[in-house]
């Protein structure tokens, strides 16, 4: 019996556009190789430290300015370039979450930084006029937990805090590496492709697991 659903954020609930983000860093900031640090699944270098909570937003912005070829770059310009990675939360996904909330405990497990997190919350509200905290019982954010997927540690912390039993939990993520770790930790898993309809894929997987829709 499935009691809990764990959703990833970027790439599952929030549609991403890496190319647009890289273009803005290059064109607007003069940071031409930001793509060396920004990945759709797992970040690298100082950006990985940012999402892991090892550096805060002011430190991140200071580092970015050091890479920029343009002078007098503002914090707001950096935030805007970074948030251009995040496109939209499709309204049907929010409606789906509210439907699932009637039967399951919903949790969010995301590799995210504080700048992007605020933008994701705004996009979520813009989709259906609901706060993200209204949907999820628990929010597990990498920069707060000081751990990132696909490390086993972040899953262990989630289990310890929530009391969720892996065999009673379905984990939805768009990263193969994260899904692999989830399976190793005993979770039921769904590897989601952004081109697919999320409701159809979740319904299909829950029915496979013996759930009524």
Q: Biggest sheet: strands side by side, in what order?
A: 5-4-1-6-7
Q: What order do the helices and strands follow?
A: EEHHHHEHEHEHHEHEH
Helix proportion: 40-55%
Give the structural class.
Answer: alpha/beta
Sheet with the most strands, sense and barrel status: 5 strands, parallel
What gap, in angstroms, lies between the N and C termini? 13 Å
Give Rg in angstroms: 17 Å
In the predicted model, the low-confidence regions spanning at least 5 consecutive residues are none
Mean pLDDT: 96
Beta content: 5-15%
Number of helices: 10
Number of strands: 7
From the spread of the alpha carbons, the general shape counts as globular
Concise account of the structure shown:
The chain has 213 residues and is an alpha/beta fold.
Report what the structure shows.
This protein is of the alpha/beta class. Helix content is 47%, strand content 13%. It is built from 10 helices and 7 strands. Strands 5-4-1-6-7 form a 5-stranded parallel beta sheet, sandwiched between helices. The chain has a two-stranded antiparallel sheet with strand order 2-3. Strand 6, helix 9 and strand 7 form a beta-alpha-beta unit. Helix 1 packs antiparallel against helix 4. It is globular and about 60 Å long.
């Amino acid at each position: 019996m499935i009691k809990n659903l764990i959703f990833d954020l970027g790439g599952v609930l929030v549609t991403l556009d890496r190319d647009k983000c890289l273009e803005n860093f290059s064109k607007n900031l003069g940071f031409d190789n930001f793509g060396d640090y920004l990945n759709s699944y797992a970040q690298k270098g100082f950006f990985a430290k940012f999402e892991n909570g090892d550096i805060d937003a002011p430190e991140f912005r200071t580092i970015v300015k050091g890479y920029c070829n343009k002078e007098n770059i503002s914090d707001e310009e950096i935030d805007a370039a970074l948030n251009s990675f995040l496109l939209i939360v499709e309204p049907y996904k929010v409606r789906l979450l509210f439907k699932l909330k009637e039967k399951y405990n919903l949790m969010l497990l995301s590799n995210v930084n504080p700048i992007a997190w605020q933008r994701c919350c705004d996009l979520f509200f813009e989709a259906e006029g609901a706060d993200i905290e209204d949907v999820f019982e628990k929010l597990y954010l990498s920069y707060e937990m000081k751990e990132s997927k696909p490390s086993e540690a972040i899953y262990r912390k989630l289990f310890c805090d929530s009391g969720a039993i892996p065999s009673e939990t379905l984990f939805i993520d768009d990263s193969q590496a994260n899904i692999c770790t989830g399976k190793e930790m005993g979770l039921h898993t769904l590897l989601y492709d952004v081109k697919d309809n999320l409701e159809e894929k979740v319904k299909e997987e829950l029915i496979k697991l013996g759930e009524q829709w």
